[in-house]
């Protein structure tokens, strides 16, 4: 079920945008019958889904719909998996109609029509590659190769438009459809221009590193002060950091936002090339930020009962939450390998007292509020009263196996899935 009403509205609009395409079935006679028309309609429907998928994959656009970037990305992925499939069925249907299987991949430049089929063939090859890698093998390939292949969607979309505009019978003979297609094409072009400008940091705020503090376990606390533009982050939201004028941008939770000065503080664990590169930043260096995104802790920003589970660096969305909305009705579990890694532990203990529980997996520590080992169903039952299990909101952030284990334990204890909110540190 879609939790976010705005995302549900977008899903509804996506359905609505297919109505003119479905209406085309009534015009089948223009293409010599339902069999021929279906081939074209599949292509058009697939292209409409792709257009939505393309738009929703762009943060600048999805930000206007909702800050719930994760929900938007889910819709984006869903469209990618199932919507694009229609566009991929289209060429198979067409070559069956034309009884010429070679037309699927082999160029034939004998007439202008076949030259324009070439754009379709190009789009088919690129989209097939993207679809196979994203829908079938995403978990098997590393993030960067997948990301760079994903960018092929830009030339693929351009080819889809060139192909459909040149030889799409419906699009060239029904004035309403022509107008509809021109609108999709125009928005696509505007977005591409924006994306190019965005490469040059248009639309990003500029900050300067103000303070850098090294903690244990490869964690560094970075505080940035605004130079141009400001990101007004709410508790638990995240922003994308780009450490140089031309560089990748990765998402990180804003751990603290200083309203007066506009400073943003992040707690970042070095785990790979990007985060290692961030460690090389020195005070005074410029970075480019965009955001804020996310709605992860929205339901926790009150004094209603809540239970928080943080694993390692997954603590960052909760630092400000506990400070502002901690109190007697908040229970917090913080899992780490060794106690030293539990950053801000003293602050949490002071705020939550006996409602703060450490879970330490690789060190022996004698304390009745420190669990040795993992947070199990029994541990949760021991510290979380039944009325919390029935009514409180639960927030989970940490490594994927940690979140999966807690989720299973909570559901086994009767917690409603609707009351469990989680944030994954990988999109
Ligand atoms: C909403 C959100 C909030 C986050 N908050 C924090 C935080 O507060 N502190 C912290 O230390 N880490 C946070 N992360 C994780 C952080 O973004 C990754 O650890 C970092 O991008 C890894 O990059 P790398 O090159 O150092 O490591 P790699 O080993 O190259 O990447 C590790 C994994 O990070 C993810 N990743 C890489 N690049 C991107 C990207 N451009 N966009 C999205 N995911 C990517 C992929 O899942 C990848 O497999 C957050 C992630 C998300 C999605």
Q: What's the CATH topology label of the largest domain?
A: Four Helix Bundle (Hemerythrin (Met), subunit A)
| Spatial strand sequence of the major β-sheet | 1-2-5-4-3-6
Q: Could you tell me how far the N terminus lies from the C terminus, measured between alpha carbons in angstroms?
A: 19 Å
Radius of gyration: 26 Å
Q: Return the domain count.
A: 3
The proportion of residues forming helix, as a percent range, comes to 40-55%
- What summary fits the major beta sheet? 6 strands, antiparallel, barrel
- The pLDDT mean sits at 93
What structural class do you assign from the helix and strand content? Answer: alpha/beta
Domain FAD-binding FR-type: 202-299
Transmembrane segments: 7-25, 37-58, 79-96, 116-136, 148-167, 179-202
GO molecular function: oxidoreductase activity
Membrane topology: Multi-pass membrane protein
Describe this structure in words.
- The protein is α/β, with parallel strands linked by helices and 427 residues long.
- It folds into three domains: 5-199, Four Helix Bundle (Hemerythrin (Met), subunit A); 205-293, Beta Barrel (Elongation Factor Tu (Ef-tu), domain 3); 300-423, Nucleotide-binding domain of ferredoxin-NADP reductase (FNR) module (Rossmann fold).
- The protein contains 16 helices and twelve strands.
- The chain has helices at residues 5-17, 19-23, 34-56, 59-65, 69-97, 112-136, 143-150, 153-167, 169-173, 175-199, 273-278, 319-325, 345-352, 377-383, 386-391, 400-412; strands at 205-214, 219-228, 238-242, 250-257, 264-269, 286-293, 306-311, 330-336, 356-360, 370-372, 393-397, 420-423.
- A six-stranded antiparallel β-barrel has the order 1-2-5-4-3-6. A six-stranded parallel sheet has the order 10-9-8-7-11-12.
- It starts with a helix and ends with a strand.
- The mean pLDDT is 93.
- Bound molecules: flavin-adenine dinucleotide.
- Flavin-adenine dinucleotide binds next to strand 4, strand 5 and helix 11.
């Amino acid at each position: 079920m879609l939790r976010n009403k705005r995302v549900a509205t977008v899903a509804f609009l996506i359905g609505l945008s297919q109505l003119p395409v479905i209406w085309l079935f009534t015009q089948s006679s223009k293409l010599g019958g339902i069999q021929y028309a279906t081939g074209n309609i599949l292509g058009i429907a697939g292209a409409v889904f792709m257009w939505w998928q393309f738009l929703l994959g762009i943060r600048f656009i999805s930000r206007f719909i909702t800050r719930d970037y994760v929900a938007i990305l889910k819709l984006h992925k869903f469209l990618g998996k199932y919507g694009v499939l229609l566009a991929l069925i289209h060429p198979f249907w067409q070559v069956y109609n034309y009884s010429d299987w070679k037309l699927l991949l082999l160029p034939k430049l004998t007439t202008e029509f076949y030259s324009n089929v070439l754009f379709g063939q190009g789009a088919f090859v690129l989209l097939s590659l993207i679809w196979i890698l994203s829908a079938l093998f995403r978990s098997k390939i590393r993030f960067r190769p997948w990301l760079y292949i994903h960018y092929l969607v830009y030339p693929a979309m351009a080819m889809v438009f060139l192909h459909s505009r040149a030889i799409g019978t419906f699009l060239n003979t029904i004035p309403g459809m022509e107008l509809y297609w021109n609108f999709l094409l125009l928005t696509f072009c505007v977005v591409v221009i924006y994306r190019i400008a965005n490469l040059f940091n248009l639309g990003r705020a500029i900050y300067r590193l103000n303070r850098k503090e090294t903690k244990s376990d490869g964690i560094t606390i970075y505080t940035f002060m605004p130079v141009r533009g400001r990101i007004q982050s709410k508790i638990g939201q995240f922003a994308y950091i780009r450490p140089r004028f031309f560089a990748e941008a990765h998402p990180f939770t804003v751990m603290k936002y200083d309203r007066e000065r506009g400073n943003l503080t992040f707690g970042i664990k070095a785990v790979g090339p990007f985060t290692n590169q961030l460690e090389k930043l020195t005070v005074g260096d410029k970075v480019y930020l965009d955001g804020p995104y996310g709605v992860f802790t929205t339901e926790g920003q009150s004094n209603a009962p809540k239970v928080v589970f943080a694993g390692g660096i997954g603590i960052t969305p909760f630092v400000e939450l506990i400070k502002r909305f901690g109190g007697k009705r908040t229970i917090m579990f913080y899992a780490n390998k060794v106690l030293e890694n539990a950053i801000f532990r003293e602050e949490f203990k002071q705020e939550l007292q006996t409602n703060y529980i450490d879970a330490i997996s690789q060190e022996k520590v004698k304390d009745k509020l420190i669990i040795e080992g993992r947070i199990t169903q029994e541990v949760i039952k021991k510290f979380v009263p039944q009325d919390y299990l029935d009514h409180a909101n639960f927030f989970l952030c940490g490594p994927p196996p940690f979140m999966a284990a807690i989720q299973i334990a909570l559901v086994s204890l009767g917690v409603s899935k609707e009351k469990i909110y989680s944030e994954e540190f990988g999109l």
